[in-house]
Amino acid sequence: MHKKHHKALLLFLLLFVSGCTNEEKKLRRENLRGEHLIRKHDEYFFTPPPPQPRSRESYPWEDKYIGSFPRISKEFFRCKGNPLNPVIVQDRGDKESFYYRDCSGRRHGLPIKDGQEFVYPCLINLLNFVQEKTEKRVVITAGHRCPTHNAYCDYTPYNWGSKHMLGAEVDFYVEGMEEQPEAIIKILMEYYPEEEFTRFKSEGLNISTPPWYNKEIFIKLYHPLEGRNHDNQHAYPYIGIQVRYDCEENKRIIFNQEQSQNYLRH
Ligand SMILES: [Zn+2]
């Protein structure tokens, strides 16, 4: 009894392993026949160019850095006002005093242009260029200023038409090169290799160093006792860049009250 069982089991296993009938084997062979690609030599639809060494494209996260510093973007230009700053009282003698309160700071937006928050791209590009050349950090002390923060910073009449309100002006210094602003100004000029800068006649202005300008920008250097305002209370010289000309729209940039009010308030 036992031996018969074993034989039957063995036969069954053999059948199982050997698989199928001859018919099925034939079918399988046919199905397994490879389809070979026919490719002749030296026959192309077009001649591919010889391979060239190519530098690797950067990954998106690498784009956020220039060297070891974050790439400057319009985010760096957000208004530095802070509602916790104390109220400033301007004593006007016999007349009623003026009171200046700071704005809500980063909770409001940048200037709006064509439905988007906007800072003049040449300012962003120039500061990234400085960071790239010096391998040092650019510290923006004033980017966009909303009208409230602008008045809070500096309530002299000269400041009323400040282009900081349009995203067309920036104040900054370079960490580690605080005492060498002239070297930074040289780099700013190198950004425009084809253009000469003209020296501004600063007679009558309360500035010891005459500014420089070309078609697009105006560069001012403020020494430690000049141009001090709420945003620039540090002890360093600083550089102010103002955009004079919109090279995309081919027009001069002049302060505009209506434009200065065009930003999102939260
Ligand atoms: Zn503000």
Structure description:
With 266 residues, the chain is of the alpha+beta class. The protein has one domain (60-260). Helices cover 25% and strands 17% of the residues. It has 7 helices and 14 strands. It has helices spanning 2-18, 22-31, 60-63, 121-134, 147-153, 181-190, 257-260; strands spanning 65-66, 69-70, 88-90, 98-100, 112-113, 116-117, 138-142, 169-174, 198-199, 212-213, 217-222, 238-243, 245-246, 251-252. A 6-stranded antiparallel β-sheet has the order 7-8-12-11-10-9, with helices on one face. It has a two-stranded antiparallel ribbon with strand order 1-2. The protein is elongated. 25% of the residues are buried. Bound molecules: zinc ion.
Key terms:
6-stranded antiparallel sheet; elongated; binds zinc ion; alpha+beta; 266 residues; two-stranded antiparallel sheet; 14 strands
